[in-house]
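Project standup — Tuesday

K.O.: blocked on the structure for the chain from last sprint. Re-posting the sequence here as requested.
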Amino acid sequence: MAQNRTLSDTTALTEINFDGLVGPSHNYAGLSLGNIASASHKGDPSYPRAAALQGVAKMRRSFTALGVQGFLLPLPRPNGALQDALHLDGSEAAALRAAPWSASSMWTANAATVSPAPDTADGKCHLTPANLITMLHRAQEWEDTKAQLEVAFGDKHHFTVHDAVPSTFGDEGAANHGRFCESHGGEGVELFVYGSLGGKFPARQHEQASRLVARGHGLAPDKCVFIEQNPAAIEAGAFHNDVVSVVNQRVLFTHQEAFADQQGAYDAIRAKFPALQVVEVPSSAVTMAEAIRTYLFNAQLITLPDGTMNLIVPEECRESPSVWAYCEEMMASNGPIRKVVPVDVRQSMANGGGPACLRLRVVCDPATVDPRFLLDEAKADRIEKVIVAAWPEQIDPSDIGSKVLAKDVIAARFTLLEALELQSLA
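H.V.: unblocked you, prediction finished:
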């Protein structure tokens, strides 16, 4: 499908996970309607330093396992432009005061939708930043996200970075997107999952946003599948599809109640990708409520260099008798997922973000990425040193809006930019 591609182009392609570094303003303001974890931890003290170090530890493990790992930086906070637009004077609701401080850009699964070069008409990797219009604290992100993507993926021979889709249609990025393929560097079939409007909680991904992204990326209609998420799952707290399913190559790891028409979803995918392997977790083994509480599906399903697949899950999964019993049974079977690896991302989990939320998957040649956004051990050491020295240890709800904290947060981020020679993003 893609034109003018050579064999050397495709053989250099690999999947890179770009994790979001947790920002120094990480806090629990409970701004995300429909996010059970966010609501239940509203008003708790947060620990930005611990959160950021947990994230770097997760990246180190991925780098060791896969040999390549990327990262994206915290966005500028507090957002002065949004503060001005909200005319904050101290009389406003706490949620409005907190919105410009949101560090939610750490969840890079919402940063953009990515279509690799083998799927697109022009043979380039296309990235469309998510507009995230459903929530004020996230709708502020996309322009700064785009600016960062344009630096990280600035090689215009290999990448195209689009504007977000029009704000008429809510788009939440890769959290509602997946890609089936025989190999990451080969041609794939892209899955777009959308929600129906009018439920108890907002359906954040609009069908037309998904279709617009697909057209903008130059995807052929026979290489796209559009599926509706189960409205009951959204009402239960699965505000993104990646809370109830995850895709890797041939495998769809999914809850039995993930889609509005479960069997119809499988049939629609198989019609375009016959090699589909479904690993369906029955409700009798793991209830929807427990899947959401533990984020079993908000996991990284990765292919190791030896071709086996590991599922990277939150520690909360190991602490759940029903979830861990299922995982042990799955590991003992002859299925495609051979190992389940728990990681500690508790600070992120408390705000509704598991291992999958923290990463954006980009299939590309690492040599085409700005090297400042690629991790190695020395760079991880450098990042950790800045976090330990500059990130606040704790933020209490009463701290939000503090001029002293604002000064510290701004200085901490700039110290990180200097350490990574990315001051242009200040």
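K.O.: great, moving the ticket to review. The chain has one domain: 7-425. The mean pLDDT is 95.
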